[in-house]
């Protein structure tokens, strides 16, 4: 189903009653957010790492840059720092359980964390430490070009080197998802998730 958006003059403007919330609620107010699986490998010892990341965003088109915000003491941060690469994988709700597992267990206790999460590693031809998730509906590989401390997190900025996406779910002509098919994982709060549905709002 595709709902057409009416011109702005057709809307009745309604004043929303708002109340002051705790400052710490800014993150919940800025939700739901798309959740990704970030992966990296250490080819010298066969270790793989995967963690769930929702604080992530595109940053630039030319060059194509993507940022992920991770606690500096996370095992993944150390792996990304030494590998100099990371891969951003797009999970669908088909692998929600595995995604939450990756977001609640540390790679310090699982040398091959991708397998431990019940997921499959796919090696990249581009870099020995780049690895993606076979069950993801898309992934893009990034070379770390900057690392910026941001409060209690570190923003890793990666230049996108290559992108793969499902033929069935991603429209290559338009460069966008078929929203009636993909079911992205969107995090609402600590243990609450939602997903994309069939409704698309189009401006024409
Ligand atoms: C849905 C979800 C989203 C998350 N997003 C982030 C995030 O954006 N940044 C972060 O540092 N941790 C995030 N986490 C927590 C990490 O994924 C989690 O601490 C993980 O176990 C770290 O793995 P590691 O110790 O192997 O690095 C998230 C967890 C979940 C479940």
Topology:
Layout: E1 2-4, H1 26-29, E2 33-34, E3 36-42, E4 47-53, E5 56-60, E6 65-70, H2 75-83, E7 85-90, H3 96-102, H4 113-116, E8 121-123, E9 131-133, E10 138-150, E11 153-165, E12 170-171, E13 176-177, E14 185-189, E15 192-195, E16 200-202
Parallel strand pairs: 1-16
Antiparallel strand pairs: 2-14, 3-4, 3-7, 5-6, 6-11, 7-10, 8-9, 10-11, 12-13, 14-15
The structure holds flavin mononucleotide (FMN).
Structure in words:
By secondary structure, the chain is mainly beta. 12% of the residues lie in helices and 41% in strands. The protein is built from four helices and 16 strands. The chain has a seven-stranded antiparallel sheet. It has a three-stranded antiparallel sheet with strand order 2-14-15, with no helix packed on it. A two-stranded parallel ribbon has the order 1-16. Flavin mononucleotide (FMN) binds at residues 35, 49, 51-55, 69-71, 74-76, 100, 103-107, 187. Flavin mononucleotide binds next to strand 4, strand 6 and helix 2.
């Amino acid at each position: 189903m595709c709902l057409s958006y009416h011109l702005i003059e057709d809307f009745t403007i309604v004043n929303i009653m708002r109340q002051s919330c705790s400052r710490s609620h800014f993150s919940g107010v800025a939700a739901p957010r798309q959740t990704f699986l970030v992966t990296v490998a250490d080819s010298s010892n066969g270790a793989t790492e995967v963690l769930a990341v929702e604080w992530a965003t595109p940053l630039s088109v030319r060059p194509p840059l993507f940022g992920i915000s991770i606690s500096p003491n996370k095992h993944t941060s150390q792996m990304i720092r030494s590998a100099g690469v990371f891969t951003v994988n797009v999970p669908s709700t088909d692998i929600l359980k595995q995604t939450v597992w990756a977001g609640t267990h540390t790679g310090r206790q699982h040398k091959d964390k991708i397998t431990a999460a019940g997921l499959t590693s796919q090696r990249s031809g581009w870099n020995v430490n780049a690895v993606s998730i076979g069950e993801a509906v898309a992934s893009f590989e990034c070379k770390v070009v900057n690392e910026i401390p941001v409060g209690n997190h570190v923003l890793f900025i990666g230049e996108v080197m290559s992108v793969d996406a499902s033929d069935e779910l991603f429209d290559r002509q338009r460069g966008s998802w078929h929203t009636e098919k993909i079911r992205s994982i969107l995090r609402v709060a600590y243990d609450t998730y939602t997903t994309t549905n069939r409704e698309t709002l189009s401006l024409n």
